[in-house]
Amino acid sequence: REMLKQFLKRKKWIVAEAPNCRKALEEMEKGEINFVVSDIETPVMTGVEMAKEMKKKFPEIPLILISGNILPYGEEIKKLKVPFLEKPFYLEDLAFKINKIASKAK
What is the pTM of this model? Predict the structure, then answer.
């Protein structure tokens, strides 16, 4: 997580981090989050569960899910139409995906 955070900061993005998806949703409530990158397997709440909540409460905030274990979540991710990157991935691939999604959201 630290490596990802530092990479995004080097790309001049402002990064906020949360210890789990529940806390991330709380941060979104404050209205200062405009893009989310989350692992699927996090404590307290999965990234897929967070994606469902985001679709209801924050449909305007783009989300990318990442994981090294998509098997248990593949069908749900397809239904939610959430972009996904499988670990391991190149950080530049994530940057490309973020830029692509962000440009569509404008």
Answer: 0.88
Residue 65: its H or E element: strand 63-67
pLDDT single digits (tens) 2-41: 888 898 888 888 888 999 999 999 999 998 888 999 999 9
Distance (Å, rounded) from C-alpha 73 to C-alpha 62?
19
Residue 33: DSSP 8-state:
-
Query: Which DSSP category does 15 fall into?
Result: -
- Check: CB of residue 85 under 8 Å from CB of residue 93: yes
pLDDT tens profile 68-105: 987 788 899 999 999 999 999 999 999 999 999 888 86
β-sheet bridge partners, residue 97: none
Phi, psi dihedral angles at 85 (to 5 degrees): -125, 130
Nearest to 4 by CA among 98, 75, 70: 98
List alpha helices for 1-106, DSSP H: 2-10, 21-29, 47-57, 74-80, 91-105
